[in-house]
Amino acid sequence: MSNVEDHPQVTECASAPTGAQVITYRDVPLGGPRSMTVRRTLPSRERTLIGAWCFVDHYGPDDVADSGGMHVAPHPHIGLQTVSWLFTGKVEHRDSAGNHAFVRPGELNLMNAGRGISHSEISTPATTTLHGAQLWVALPEDVRAGEPGFAHYAPEAVEGPGWTARVFLGSLGGSTSPVVTATPLLGVEVLLAPHADAEFGVDDAYELGVLVDTGSVEANGLSIGRAELGYLPPGASRLCLRAGEDGARLLLLGGPPFGEAIVMWWNFIGRTHEDIEAARTEWQRQIEGVSDSQEVAAGTFGTVVGDHLPPIPAPPMPNGVRLKERH
């Protein structure tokens, strides 16, 4: 693809806008001593949300022989959507709404938790290297108690001089994803050749996040290194990307400011401490009904169809502390 404007605007991207920031990741182990370690940039002390994006885990490339791969037994969610995106490897998804799918490189799997769902994520036996991102989207108040759902989409690549993009949510560079979201969202994988410059039209009402997977990049003048998340505030109608000497691969995330306070804890997103406490109580109630076959008794979160792994118990709620709203 190329810029099809008859009279494209000349855009100056030499310096980062006021309010731009770079968020450094923290390492978070998932599970036991041979567990995967993910690099988490959202939520962080600096920022909770970019649009409705509220959780960003970036992992790999990991040698599965060393890390054990992804082995996440049934666990619950409320009030959010999970977005799975892989660069390398293959992960099997099963959920309590009866969906069974595989996460493959360059293909979107979006699970809508709504009022409650449980699912498992297991890397396949043939996977030797695992590399990707796990993202969450907060659901707005008017739909967060809706029915669970699932969407899969394999976007075609669009290209321009020195860049290739796959638009899995929203629109960019002439490509539009058909996947319906509760709030306007942008989700794109972008590959940049060494020293490449790429410029895209973007909605000036959107906040933008740039998660760098490989290499380094400047985004509207903001320098972002590998595994860092760059934040750009609303106001710009153009996004200028410039790759370093090794080129870059990045995920571009965006959306208008969410506009609602949320409460996040473990795998739940609500609006109050009581929302979270009720969800935890219900999940634990279901776990206490585990049968000899290790299937979770049906309830708010249902049973993961075709998966007989023991479900993951919820951690204890903070003792004597109310969960705080995040804005």
From TrEMBL:
Residues 188-285 form the Pirin C-terminal domain. This is Pirin. One of its GO terms (molecular function) is metal ion binding. Belongs to the pirin family. Fe cation binds at H75, H77, H119, E121. It comes from Nocardioides baekrokdamisoli. Residues 37-137 form the Pirin N-terminal domain. It comes from the Bacteria. InterPro entries: Pirin (IPR012093), Pirin_C_dom (IPR008778), Pirin_N_dom (IPR003829), RmlC-like_jellyroll (IPR014710), RmlC_Cupin_sf (IPR011051). Binds 1 Fe cation per subunit. Its cofactor is Fe cation. Keywords: Iron, Metal-binding. Residues 307-327 are annotated as: Disordered.
